[in-house]
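TODO from last week: model Spore germination protein.
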Amino acid sequence: MKALAVNKSRLFLMLISAAILFLQTGCWSKDEIEDLSIYIGMALDIGEQSKVEKALEKQGAGYARKKAMTFTIQIINELKGGKGDKTPAAEQKAYINMSETGDSIFEMIREFSTRMERPVIGHHLKVIVVNEKLARRKRMDQLLDFFLRDNDIRPSAVVFISKSKASHTLETQSSTVVPAFRLLGITDNQYRSLKIMSPVTLAKLEGKMHAGMSYVLQNVVSAKGEVAFSGAAVIKGSSQKLIGFLNEKELVGLMLLSGQGKGGQIKAYHEERGEVISYEIKKLESKINAIVKNGKVTFEVEIETTGRVMEEWTPSELEINEAFTKQTEAAVKEEIEKLVLSTLAKLQDKYKTDVAGFGQRLRIQHPKVWEPMKKDWDEEFSQIPVTIHIKSKITEYGATSRR
């Protein structure tokens, strides 16, 4: 009898489950992917109408707006190699770029609806590139306001600055490369180069902008369809405008100073012989200590690296012994010190801006001291002495048999 009751219960549950599945109709408001234009990249430049825009405007396709900026979107070419297209698939690009000029990003996005049969959606936006000139004129929190408000756009989108025209970073001469994906992919190489920052996403930026903190954004330059990461743009927290750049060496110094580097190479020269030494960092640690004594604030930074020598041009007959290793470690330490001090001087003396996290350490370690200083922290930081302590250790010399 008990077995019969259990079987009846199971049968009842199965019937209920079947009824629920039958009643489900799916998402009533769904849009088929082939009916949408999925944009994955965006670029913001100083306003300059394209030839197409000018031609359309001459025929009355204009509307009231200031031509303050040009907004470019990169759309995945879903029709690449599709039926009815006579262009060989090998010659078709995997993306389509479209531009609109105006003063409201939201308005410009909606304006694309008058030029395209498929509505654009931003669920898969990967990168946003802002031109240097525009970032100097307009506040970053204003330029990014729409992206932070739009529920369609994910906060994981990565933000870049470009010294060259931002829309050019979303171009390539290859038919297989998608420029937005290329930019995102380069950020994955951070473990191989100290010239590549951790991706700065909309989610990370929102907190910094609301707090009035200064920060850096990776600079990307372009030429003939190719791109390269080259240094970083410094954004002043109080004005939210671009005030200058760190070159590639200074960015390396910042990565060492802040401990954000995941790995990379340091090139030094042997003191006596002048030969090249390439040191690959396998582990990087940086600790900033805020010290308050007699009402005065100072900082001490402890930077420690371990790594291996991947290239050195010393004579083959020279023995690699403990003395040689110490000389090599000293050369690497000296180079790291030069990079860090050069970056620190530029941040404190020229830009008067803290983008390395000194203020955060003071806030955590000495909150009462931080409180009256936080309003004008960048200016305060520029006057505070910083002492650097560096340790560099060589753990191996690669696969060479010479010892």
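Done. The chain has a mean pLDDT of 87.
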